[in-house]
Amino acid sequence: MVDNLKKIVEKSQKNQSSSEQEERLNKFLARAGVASRRAAEVFIAEQRVSVNGVTATTPGTKIFPQKDVVKLDGKIIRTEKQHITAALYKPAGVVSTTTDPQGRKTVISLLPHTLRALRLYPVGRLDLDSEGLILLTNDGDLALQLTHPRYEAEKEYHALISPPLSDEALLTLQNGIFIEGDHPGKTLPATVKRLRGFKYIKPDDQHEWISVAIREGKKRQVRLMVSAAGSDVKKLIRVRIGKLWLETLALKPGDVKSLSTNEIALTLIHEDAPPRKEMPKKK
Prior knowledge:
alpha+beta
């Protein structure tokens, strides 16, 4: 399975568009490393994109990448010669955007100048108060596979919560729970378990560590799920994307690492088995 995913990544990295091949405008912008396809659609809707001097109005506009002149905010856009994907341990207090109107530190500001020059952008989001693994790339196709719901890219979080939840509450989290927020509704089944061991020592009896693995990316979803179950998240760390583990990368807060083809392929793998339905055991 990893070999097949490696082929997908390598094919994407070859970037073989020719002057005879048409391409959708939003896909071209994503491939150029400007933003994800969905973000590129927003740019087009805001009339910030032009093709040969004419303002584009629809994401599906067809262009010839090697012939047509595409501009974003008046600046000519060219496709990157090399696709790069990097893993970053985002510290709490850093925003997951390329810029911030409030002047807060962004994930881009943590990159070395060599990576900033390649116009990487964050894949998905990790809220301000959370920390852990986040990917940055200039590969629009990879970003789509990691963020679009139909690909079900799995992400795992370790959360310190207070107060501890009952077995019944954990089972409700696992089977799906109704949440509020920007996208209210019942969440998809998740994998939920209590965490034990020296790395997850509880500060007192009013706290505990749990693991939550989800395949959807609603804003602040894990925090909203825990809140709906009757507890509160005190600390949240994303530890895994697909089969790529933060611990394996040996990153500390603020560290960044360029990923190999094998490591990128790991981000696209998820478990095929459904979550367990039995009651999580409390010790």
